[in-house]
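Dear Dr. H.,

I hope your travels went smoothly. While you were away I took the liberty of generating a structure for the chain from your last submission, since the lab meeting agenda had it listed for discussion. I wanted you to have the full record in hand beforehand rather than looking at slides cold. The sequence, exactly as received, is reproduced here:
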Amino acid sequence: MATRSRRSPLGRRWRVDTMFKLPRRAKSAGNPCASTCGRTSARRYGGGKQRRSTVEISQMSADFKETIAKLHAGLRRKFVSAETRDVAWRRRQLKRLLLLLDENAESLSAAIGADLRRPASEASSEVAVTAREAADALASFEDWMRPQWSAAHIFVAPAGQEVRFEPYGASLIVAPYNYPVNLLFAPLVGAFAAGCNAMLKPSEISVATEKLLVQLVPKYFSPEDCCVVSGAAEETAAILELRWDMVFFTGSTRVGKIVAQACAKHLTPHVLELGGKVRRQLLRGDVEAEWRRNSDQVFS
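The corresponding predicted structure, in token form, is as follows:
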């Protein structure tokens, strides 16, 4: 039987639009996922005092690299064991993610508000939208997994062909500060639906959200299924030195170039969701017409 492959950004021959045994509840105490070693300076959105690291970079290099190496090895072992390919495993992870968002919606909204000074309604909507994405994936991922049959060429008749969707593997998800919950967990939804486990790297600028996530994730996931690490540029560079099966980065163009260069060393598939601003000078009489034209380009 001939096999035709098809690629998408977040899973080898997988069509889900974002990437990627029953997990035991991990205790917070002593869990390597809850490590905050090597946290460097961070500045809160809209101003605030800069937090200095209590660990020197030289000391961070040994401790932090050893921690992330163990977490990375655990993720790789779990994926190689083929447990993550099972339908039941994917369903359990999505349910646990939904449970995390539902049970901690208020605390997550409060953390977003503290970091970004957003009103409660806007902060809570970010959590609600993320939970809706997880619920939609939970209802649809089995349909996404089904092979797609297609007609074979007459030269290979009577053989048939199909497209089978396979996960990439252990994934790294790096999120920015401006939507610290949605842009971290939305790619994770796709990763779980595709049969991938993942390491999460929230932004160090969203201090309250990062601290909360470091506490919550180990309570709902085992380190081999999903783990979270904290840190700034030096820690992210150390994480990128590892050999990942997929990297999903959301952030600036400048940092995106660094991520792409690090992924190129291992030929790692990666997705770069880069932000930016388009500068344009508008005359007073053209503002409304230009706004309508730009809106049509963006939303159609």
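Two observations you may find useful: The radius of gyration is 21 Å. The CA atoms of residues 206 and 219 lie 21 Å apart.

With kind regards,
E. W.
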